[in-house]
Design brief:
By secondary structure, the chain is an alpha/beta fold. It folds into three domains: 85 residues, Winged helix-like DNA-binding domain superfamily/Winged helix DNA-binding domain (Arc Repressor Mutant, subunit A), CATH 1.10.10; 93 residues, Periplasmic binding protein-like II (D-Maltodextrin-Binding Protein, domain 2, 3-Layer(aba) Sandwich); 104 residues, Periplasmic binding protein-like II (D-Maltodextrin-Binding Protein, domain 2, 3-Layer(aba) Sandwich), CATH 3.40.190.10. Helices cover 40% and strands 23% of the residues. It is built from ten helices and eleven strands. Strands 3, 4, 5, 6, 9, 10 and 11 form a seven-stranded mixed β-sheet that branches. Strand 3, helix 5 and strand 4 form a beta-alpha-beta unit. Helix 1 packs across helix 3.
Length: 295
């Protein structure tokens, strides 16, 4: 049973004429008659009463007509869906992002993309940088937003693009000795207890090495009393006045009225966190290729 056979049958049923149906498809009456006979053989019963003028459907043909219209519609929809998926107009996209980055402009970017491609479903996953890298390389994620991505950039199968350089903020409490400053440098933080926001569970990541270098350039080694990938945990501890922390701006800018917390910009040539978007270059998901147009 073919799509054309169903269309020919519907045309004959609606026009009550083999001749008119043949003219509609620009084929001979003989050809359309043969196709209808072949369809009846497949169905196993007569669908059209050829002894009546104009020709009429048999009782079985009347029932089959409803089903034939439904089948044609479903088949044409399936073709459209497949074509849209192949062109990136329909599909799914899995995006991972580093902890805290939900407070950035990420939702605005995804909302804009969804507005342009409403038939692409974007699912989002919040993870540590370690897990993001693993899931991207393993193919479980189409694209990730992360920092501390130097190791991934060295992978020849990974494409990447710098998304933004995020300013760093010093999180402290109102009674702290530095609370009245308009901005701070790392040298101002000598002697402080640090609640360290780490890019990964590992203690020897590229991100760690970068920030430790900045402390060395400021002339001291930080006294790290607590280490976590979770900004929320760190901020609770800062508010409890157990230490201070340096966090990316996106972790703090929506917390201006947070209880017993203030945020002061950290100034310096390299005092930022670079967020990169990364993807596998061998990922042929059409939805990913549409999303990459944002960059």
């Amino acid at each position: 049973m073919t799509l054309n056979q169903l269309k020919y049958f519907i045309a004959v049923a609606q026009s009550h004429s083999f001749t008119k149906a043949a003219q509609q498809f620009y084929i001979s009456q003989t050809a359309i008659t043969q196709q209808i006979k072949a369809l009846e053989q497949i169905v196993g019963t007569t669908l059209i009463d050829r002894n009546k003028r104009p020709i009429l459907l048999t009782p079985a043909g009347s029932v089959f007509l409803t089903e034939a219209k439904s089948m044609v519609e479903q088949m044409e929809n399936a073709v459209t869906i497949a074509q849209n998926a192949a062109s990136g107009q329909r599909g799914t996209l899995k995006i991972g992002y580093t902890k805290g980055y939900e407070r950035s402009n990420l939702s605005n970017w995804i909302r804009g993309f969804h507005k342009d491609y409403p038939n692409i479903f974007v699912s989002c996953y919040r993870m540590t940088t370690d897990l993001l890298a693993s899931r991207l390389v393993g193919g479980q994620l189409d694209l990730i937003y992360t920092w501390d991505s130097t190791n991934l950039q060295q992978n020849t199968e990974i494409g990447y693009c710098a998304v933004e350089d995020v300013p760093l903020m010093v999180a402290l409490y109102p009674s702290h000795r530095l609370a009245g400053k308009k901005h701070l440098t790392r040298k101002d933080l000598i002697g402080e207890k640090f609640l360290y926001m780490s890019p990964s569970e590992s203690t020897n990541s590229y991100g760690d090495a970068h920030f430790m270098t900045l402390y060395e350039e400021a002339g001291f080694k930080p006294q790290i009393v607590f280490r976590s990938t979770n900004a929320e945990s760190i901020l609770i501890m800062v508010a409890s006045e157990q230490g201070i922390s340096i966090l990316p701006d996106y972790c703090t800018k929506k917390l201006s009225n947070a209880d017993n917390l203030i945020f002061i910009p950290l100034k310096g040539e390299h005092e930022y966190e670079r967020i990169d978007a990364l993807w596998r270059t061998d990922n042929h998901n059409p939805a990913l290729h549409q999303y990459l147009q944002l960059f």
